[in-house]
Every structure is written in structure tokens, then in C-alpha cells.
Amino acid sequence: MVQDSKILDVAFNPQSIAVIGASSDDNAEKKSWVGRLLEFGYKGKIYPINLKAPTVLGLKAYPSVKAVPEPIDYAIISIKSSLVPMALRDCITKGIKIAHIFAAGFAETGMEEGKKLQQEVVSIIKEGKIRIIGPNCMGIYNPVTGLTFNVRFSREAGSVGIVSQTGAGMMELIPHANARGVRFSKVVSYGNALDVNAPEFVEYFAQDNDTKYLFCYVEGVNDGYRFFTAVRDCNRTKPVIVLKGGLTEGGSGAVSSHTASLAGSELVWKAFFNQTGAIQVETLDEAVEQIVAVEKLPEIKGRRIGIVARGGGVGVVATDTCERAGLKVPALTKETRLELAKITPAEAGSSIRNPVEIGLGRFGVAEGYALGLKLVTDDPNIDVVMAVINPHVYTQEGVGVKEIDQAAQVLIDSSKTLSKPLAVVVTLGDDINVIGMEMEAQQKMLKAGVPTFSTVEAAILAISKMAKYWEFRRSL
Amino acid sequence: MVQDSKILDVAFNPQSIAVIGASSDDNAEKKSWVGRLLEFGYKGKIYPINLKAPTVLGLKAYPSVKAVPEPIDYAIISIKSSLVPMALRDCITKGIKIAHIFAAGFAETGMEEGKKLQQEVVSIIKEGKIRIIGPNCMGIYNPVTGLTFNVRFSREAGSVGIVSQTGAGMMELIPHANARGVRFSKVVSYGNALDVNAPEFVEYFAQDNDTKYLFCYVEGVNDGYRFFTAVRDCNRTKPVIVLKGGLTEGGSGAVSSHTASLAGSELVWKAFFNQTGAIQVETLDEAVEQIVAVEKLPEIKGRRIGIVARGGGVGVVATDTCERAGLKVPALTKETRLELAKITPAEAGSSIRNPVEIGLGRFGVAEGYALGLKLVTDDPNIDVVMAVINPHVYTQEGVGVKEIDQAAQVLIDSSKTLSKPLAVVVTLGDDINVIGMEMEAQQKMLKAGVPTFSTVEAAILAISKMAKYWEFRRSL
Known about the structure:
Two copies of one chain form a homodimer.
Chain A: H1 4-12, E1 16-20, H2 33-40, E2 45-49, E3 55-56, E4 59-60, E5 74-77, H3 84-94, E6 98-101, H4 112-126, E7 131-133, E8 139-141, E9 157-164, H5 168-179, E10 184-189, H6 198-207, E11 213-218, H7 224-235, E12 240-244, H8 249-259, H9 266-276, E13 279-281, H10 284-296, E14 305-308, H11 312-324, H12 334-341, H13 369-378, E15 384-389, H14 401-417, E16 422-426, H15 432-447, E17 452-453, H16 456-475
Parallel strand pairs in A: 1-2, 1-5, 5-6, 6-7, 9-10, 9-11, 11-12, 12-13, 14-15, 15-16, 16-17
Antiparallel strand pairs in A: 3-4, 8-10
Helix pairs in contact in A: 1-6, 3-4, 5-10, 6-7, 10-16, 14-15
């Protein structure tokens, strides 16, 4: 069998791709694999394989990979499941070392026919002449080579890698993360994991220089110990976020009909997270927030958070949310409070205890906001600061693009000079006239490297998990 | 002392209001109380009280309430806290029966001066000639009379009442709920609760014919047993949602600096929720989702949910989320699955086990979607159905306004004919070009009475709490 990291290097960076079952029916509603590669700007050679058509989307087509005169690195197999074994044998004959089987209809159907077919594929690859990603998956996205399973993904490369058993989930997560300023190094959706499985992928990403952070969505793993070791080792230098799908009873049933994986017990996974120190998330939306945190939030030295936000009941609820997430919201020192009292108005609901209400976002940049932020951050009782602005509450009171932009700038400037990590929340309202401005403010801050979140709850959860992660790292 | 419900009737529906400390400085950034009443269209008489100005915003002003020739129902006291006792004595002389003290600077400051001032007010009202809402609060919003503390609130009346110790929180919650199609009967923000407290308000709403559902944000109550009884009794016919602020250690500290309330122990509140059957929420955002559910979701007969959404990993995560929230995601019967197999394509990740993927939202209305929804709903294993559409994932593949609108219409039509409750999720992406369409689809469905949520997690949490609520109601 070809050595893992080398073979995966080929899969992530193929110089040539055969699309077996290349369709010439390429329209906006249902892009073909060839159409996607062309549109996304794949830099290598594409060989469409089609029994009848002489060309596919302007490219010369071949009836079989065996008919292609040049060598081929990688195959995407997009045909009916029953035809897959024959196609695989052709790939082996051609000397293709790794193939992505897009087709579904194997063990995940729960039907005898599908299980038999999966067994047949297993015996074909046992000879060791070809490796498989899939079946029942979307394969690879690598912005550098232009290989993708969705043309909406960013063409810009970044530092986050993904190992995912779900493709549909990635179709949502990646654009969502892109919109939040996240860029990816390499992504793989690997479905039923009939051959290459999570541990090998994690090992690959651990040694991949382009990847600095890793997110894994796994439903089940074939070799639990190898996965455990791979995640543990990677996580010591590159934070690993893991979403384990199918942890509940009902979820494990859904897993079996999705990727035919064995979900494993909740207890085993609890031990896995405790011992590897991997960051556990529960939903794909939460994964995006955690990726933002992992990439942009500097090391947090403790769990004591300073909140600069609306006070009153909003502050009380934020405090409860922090404490439920394992953070502490301590009172600021008397010294800090005396200084804060000089710059905050004594209005209904205002407070200088912590949470602190200084007024940014209400009527644009309140005088003293940057100073207030600094006072809270420098307080010896505080390890990390969360600043919340909610422009939609005030836009009808005369706050507009200028003020929101100004607020974003103050926060960007502050984040560069403050002595401790700063997380920002720009909440999005329901007002379509304002939401665009708020998104732009988020974008601006994310581009400037400020960890920016859309809800107070999401920010708190992400911060608390980073605090825990750094505790783990320091304990090593 | 004037009888509670009668005096609160006056406060919620005053024929005339004196604004003590009426400011003529009315601009977009900081609306005055008089300016708000005028802009919002208050239907009664307004008497601005201002020591120096002869008119305020075009209205004749008076140096004191005592100088007003006509009787006055209600006073809004918006002056420095130190001047409040004198103003209250004037109100008593004038025969005003109830006043809202907007001013802060009482016990919540934690300072001796503030506490003394609060004591002075207490001794003034002990004589029983005047009742107080507040201090340190925003007072009343009643769209019918045109009384409000924020001009952005809807002028349309509805069936949800609010008893809230936070005003700032309501400034966010009410527009948010308005945008989600919720309309309010009457709202009160009552701050420090120096006199009228949560129990009296709840008793008032329980007998108020305009109110069918109640949301309470409380930090502490003076008379725990009376509050318990009031909520328990109300909740038997009108669902009561309660957000208890300051349940955590840090939160209770924040409470004392917000409204000087005693937060009470977590254990006591746990018993409170168990015994009253009130629906507990933890954040203001969650409160909005729960209000939508309480108002629009019909009685749920059990905890078994059918999910019609993306399958694959997205379905696995949704299933886990359901089970964590106490719902069950059972496999559908063989009969249902055979019928579903006829209308769903066997693609990668598609599933007919539950969650079921039928394809709406992907390429517009898939043929058979309404039928599929009906099949899932009619399955004997299912009590409630959640349908999820996420148009932003597909808009770049040719799905536009027309398809999204069509999808909304299918869901509206289905919700009217299905045999069991249907909840819909329209997830909002990060694409500013699509988010407007998605919000419009949400609006359209909410207007048609379909319980519509913005995230799968929010919908699941709200549904699970309604299932629990109805179990409680049926156990009575």
C-alpha cells in the first residue's frame, strides 16, 4: 500500500484528474464535476470519462481511463454504485493510485445489495493497488490547486483544515465560515470511510505546513486508538476542534443510515475529549464560531471575563450565560471602578461593576470608550474581555454607517494595544436596512484579525472553550 | 391602598399623563418622554412639568403637577433621584394615584445615599395614597393607548404580555419579537420594584382579556409565595415563559447592582419551575423564539419529532440536538419509508429513515414535497414535524425569490392541512443578497400563523419546551 502522507499529497494536489461518469449536462442548478473544476479554475489536466460523448464541456472525452494516453493522478468516480467495481478495476489497470467515490448506494442504505457492493469494493482495494476516499462523499476542496466540490467556496487559501464525514454539512459550513473571514488550507469530505479514514487524514493534516488549525466532523472511526493518538498529538501544537455526530441514541441511528459508521458510546467519547484535549462542539454553527475563536483569539490565561456591553438585565443574562459556560464574571477592583465612574453616565441600568456599560454603539463612539475598554482589560481580576455592540437597537435614533464604522475602528485599534485578549460581538438585528452595515462592521473587524461573533451566547461559548483549551495546553 | 387590578388598569390605560422633568431637548438621538408620546401617538392628554419652560414641544408646560387645572391619571417622573421625594409629594397632593419613576440612583447603586433615598420613597408611599412603578425602569408600553418607552415598538396590538425587570432588555427584545411577527398586549418594565412587584403584575395579566401569553423577566421577587401562586394559576390557562436573571453566583451579583433585588437560590427556582409548569428560558433571544412557539405552535401530543431537512451529517447533528433537548427522533414505519422511497432521489446523503430529505429548498419546490411532508406527519411514530429550508445554500445555483416564495407557500398550505403541528426553520445565511429574501419568507410564514424559526437549534429547544409544557397541562 502506498504510504499515507504521500498518497494523500497526491489526492490533495493532483496534477491530473479523471472524472469517471463525466456529464455534459452542466447548468446552474446541477453543476457537473467537470463543470465545477473548470469554473473553479482547477490548474491541472481534466480527463472526462464518458462512454458515448466525444467531448464534455469542450474537453476531449474518453470511453475509459484506459483510453487516456497520459498518466492520471486522481479519479473522481461519479457513476451508479453498481458500476463502481468495474471503474475501480479500470483505474488500477491505468495505474491511478487514489480515487474519490462520489456515488452513494453502499452500506449506508442498509440494504443487502449495497452492503454486498461495499464488500466487493473492499476486496478490490485489498490488493493494495488503489486507495479510496468515500464512497458516498464530496471529496476534496483545495483552493490552491483549484479542486473543489462547490464553486461557492473561497478561492483564497487559509490555515484551517477540515476532516469531515459529511459533505452536505460542509456545503453549509464552508461558505458560512468564508463569510466570517475564515479561509481553508485543505478540506476532505470522506463519507463511508471504506478505506482512508479519519486517523490517516488527521495524521496528514498534523504534518501539513499549510494547516495551523483543524476541524473534524466524525461519525465513527475504524481504529479508535489511532484516531485518539492522531488527535492528541496534533492538538498539542495545532488546536483540533471535533464535532462527534451521533453521540445520542437517536443520532447513532441517523449515523448508520448516513455513513454506515458505528457511532461508539458517549462514555468513550467523553474520555476521548478529556484525554486528547480536543475542543468539542455540538453543531456546525458552533463549529464556525469556534474556528473563528481558535484562529483569532490569542492565548487566554484564565477564566475571568470582563464584559463591556449593555448593563441592566442584558448584562445580568450575559453574566449568567458566562457562568453557565464555566467563566467567571468577577467584580472589578475598586480602583478600576473609581476610574470608570469618571467616564460613564449614571443612567438607569448603567453599571461599572462588571458588566460595564460605557456607551459605544449607542450614540456612536462615546467619549472615553477606548479608555474604558483599557481600564477593564488592565484590571488584575480580568483575563479576557468581551465587548458587545448592537447597532440595530440604535440606528433609528440617528446612528448610521459612519458611527458603526467608527465603532469598528475603535475596537480594531484597541485590540492591537490591549494587554489581554479581546473578543467582539456585533449582534445582527432583524432590520434588513441595518443588517448589511452590521455585517460590514463584522467583516472589517474580522479582516483586521479581531475575533468577532454574531451573538453573545456564541462568543461566550467559544471563549470558554478556548480558556479550557489553553488550560490543557499549559498542563502538558 | 387602591385595589391592584384597578390601579394597574389606570397605569396601563391612563387618560392623562404628567411628565415630571419634561425636557424640550428632543432630538433623534435622545428622545424625551414627551417627544416619544407625541411621536408614538398617545391618545390622552399630556402635561409637561418643567420649572422654567412655558411650553415643551408645543404643549403648555406647568411648573408643578399642582399647577395643572385638570385631574391627572398617571405621572412619569424623569428627574434626578434626589428630587423624586418632593415630586412624589406633589403627585399625592394633586391626587395622582400611580407614578412611574424613571430615575435611577436608588438602592441599585449600592451607595448609602441611594439606599436612604429609596427608604424615603418607601415611607412616602406607606401612607397608601400613591403607588409606584420603579424606580430605575422604563415603565409601560401599550400600543392601544399609544403609551411607550420606545418609538420603534409596533403600534399594532397583539396577545403577548410582558412583566420585566429590565428595560434595556425590552428595547432589544420587543423590536426583535416584532420583526418575528409577535405583537404585544401590554408591557411593563418595573426595575427596582420598590412598590408594585412581579406578583401583582402577573395577577393583572392573568385577568387581562387582551393577554393570552405572558413573558416574565424577573431578577428577584419580594413575596415568593405570591409570585409562585400567581404564575402557577396563570400558567394553567395562559402559558407563562419565565427568564430568571441572576440564577448563577456571578449573575446574582449583577442583579444586585442592576435592580438591588435578592436573586434567590438556584434550588428554590428549580422547584418553582417544576411546580408552576412555567416555561424556563435562559436568554432574551431564546425568549423571543419561545414566544413565537407559545403563540403559534398548536398543542404537541408527545416528544417524537419528524425532521424534514437536509440529511447526511446535517441530519445527524439535528438528531443529536433533538435528543439532547429531550425529544425523540424515531425511525419512520416501514410503510412510510416505502411511500417516501417513491418520491425521493437516492443521492449521496439522502435518507428516508428520519431525518427525511425530500429536496425542498434545493431546486425550488421538489415534486412531492407536500406529499412527503404529509407522509412524515401521518406516521404513527411522529407527534410533531420540523421542516428546515436553507435557501442561501442554493441561491447561487439558480434558486431565487420565486422559488423561496413558492417554498414558503407550500409550507403555509401544508401547515393548514397537516394532522399534527408543523414548525418551520428558514435559516439565514451570511449572504446579504439572499438574507432579505429569507427574512421575507419568514415574515410571510409568520403572518400566515406558521411557527417559523431562524435556526435549527432554536426551533428544537422551543419545540421541546412546548412538548414539556403540554405534558404539564395535561397532567393537571
